[in-house]
Amino acid sequence: MKIAVSGGGTGGHIYPALALIREIQKLDKEAEFLYIGTQNGLESKLVPRENIPFKSIYITGFKRKLSFDNIKTIFRFLKGVKDSKKYLKEFKPDVVIGTGGYVCGPVVYAAAKLGIPTIIHEQNSVPGLTNKFLSRYVNKIAICFDEAKQFFPANKTVFTGNPRASEVLGKDGIKGRLSAGLSTTKPAVLIFGGSRGARPINEAVVKGFTEFSGKPYQVLYVTGDAHFEDVKKEAELVGNPDNVVIKPFIHNMPEILAGMDLVVSRAGATTLAELTSLGIPSILIPSPYVTNNHQEKNARSLSDHGAAELLLEKDLTSNTLIGHIDRIMLNKQTNEEMKLQSKKMGVPDSASRLYKVIEQLIKENQK
Ligand SMILES: CC(=O)N[C@H]1[C@@H](OP(=O)(O)OP(=O)(O)OC[C@H]2O[C@@H](n3ccc(=O)[nH]c3=O)[C@H](O)[C@@H]2O)O[C@H](CO)[C@@H](O)[C@@H]1O
Q1: What are the structural domain ranges in the chain?
Q2: Average pLDDT, the chain
Q3: Span from the CA of 279 to the centroid of ligand 1 (angstroms)
Q4: Atom number of ligand 1 nearest to Cα 295
Q5: Is it the case that residue 298 has pLDDT exceeding 80?
Q6: Best of 195, 196, 220, 289 to mutate for ligand 1, by most ligand atoms within 8 A of CB?
Q7: Which of 183, 271, 292, 339 is buried deepest, with most CB atoms within 10 A?
Q8: Which pLDDT tens digit goes with each residue over 48-71?
Q9: Do the first three CATH levels of 2-164+349-366 and 173-344 match, i.e. the same topology?
Q10: Does domain 2-164+349-366 have CATH number 3.40.50.2000?
Q11: Contact 58, 86 (CB under 8 A)
């Protein structure tokens, strides 16, 4: 099987693609892959780390409001289609899968025009512009929230869940904790702001930093690569409590998550798929800066079921943040109840569901 994958910009689009590739590698030892991304997106760092062949095109996203940049983007799109066609003609994939982010636009469109079977994977409850555009051209649309159905043609749409939900299972949490320099006995909280970090979350954490000192739990605090140096400096100024470890980025998130009792994060869809698959309670601070406020919708789907607590960014201060953390970490019953509700919402077999859609599509195309 030869599979070309495209998805990028942020981790939420890249990790599902990598999880799918790893699932296929397990089932089909001969499978060959090509990943097409951009040079500026996080994918140009994450994909080569996994020894997956990587090619790039140059493309930018469309602005929602009228802008001269959109005209430039149209030209970049056309060039991106041309370059993608070249890569695809060389590689000759059996199927092309887009996992979101604007880079998928030209790649998946080019594949559809070449007559190659195509699939898009939509992680969110509300699709972005690129997947809405591509939905007209692709053969199949894999979704992760029932709410997403209404935006896509019913005959192509299938619920699979997010393959990352499968990948995070069965990992060793003790190993994860040790890799981050955490104690293996004390309860642990992970705080992070999505794949690129979030300034408002960083500000709230740093302001309340010293208050973590003496708590009966430890904190692994991930700032995001771009914010690390500033946060580290501030932490040194106010005094870094013994029970708080600060990191710029985590590359072994599945192991780390396996060792956590609570997660505080943005409400990116891939993160939520991981949390519910593992049954981890969370405090979700949705980013208000995303298309159609989709992170709040993602977050509410968990908080409505008691799997998470919602903390809106407008209410975020170091006091509200630590108050929420204490409520869950100092109350065993609340923590256990949330774990149960979170686990109930997980779709642990998502990777094999998506693989079946791919296999089926390839078979249909061979008829
Ligand atoms: C600002 C923005 O547009 N965010 C979108 C982006 O979020 P973002 O890229 O932040 O995506 P998610 O929160 O969904 O996923 C982040 C992924 O990165 C991993 N991770 C994160 C930090 C780290 O240090 N190490 C690490 O491995 C997480 O475990 C997860 O697998 O894609 C998501 C999925 O389409 C969307 O729902 C989000 O709205």
Answers
A1: 2-164+349-366, 173-344
A2: 96
A3: 18
A4: 39
A5: yes
A6: 195
A7: 271
A8: 999 999 999 998 887 777 778 888
A9: yes
A10: yes
A11: no
> CATH second-level architecture of 173-344?
3-Layer(aba) Sandwich (3.40)
Q: How many residues comprise the chain?
A: 367
> Is residue 103's pLDDT more than 90?
yes
Distance from C-alpha of 278 to C-alpha of 14, rounded to nearest angstrom: 20
Averaged over 222-232, what is the pLDDT? 96
The token duo for 202 is 């960083």
CA-nearest of 235, 262, 260, 257 to 335 is: 262
ipTM rounded to 2 decimals: 0.97
Q: How far is the CA of 364 from the centre of ligand 1 (A)?
A: 33
Give the residue whose CA is nearest to atom 30 of ligand 1: 271
3-state per-residue secondary structure call for the chain: CEEEEECCCCHHHHHHHHHHHHHHHHHCCCCEEEEEECCCCCHHHHHHHCCCCEEECCCCCCCCCCCHHHHHHHHHHHHHHHHHHHHHHHHCCCEEEECCCCCHHHHHHHHHHCCCCEEEEECCCCCCHHHHHHCCCCCEEEECCHHHHHHCCHHHEEECCCCHHHHCCCCCHHHHHHHCCCCCCCCEEEEECCCCCCHHHHHHHHHCHHHHCCCCCEEEEECCHHHHHHHHHHHHHHCCCCCEEEECCCCCHHHHHHCCCEEEECCCHHHHHHHHHHCCCEEECCCCCCHHHHHHHHHHHHHCCCCEEECCHHHCCHHHHHHHHHHHHCCHHHHHHHHHHHHHCCCCCHHHHHHHHHHHHHHHHHC
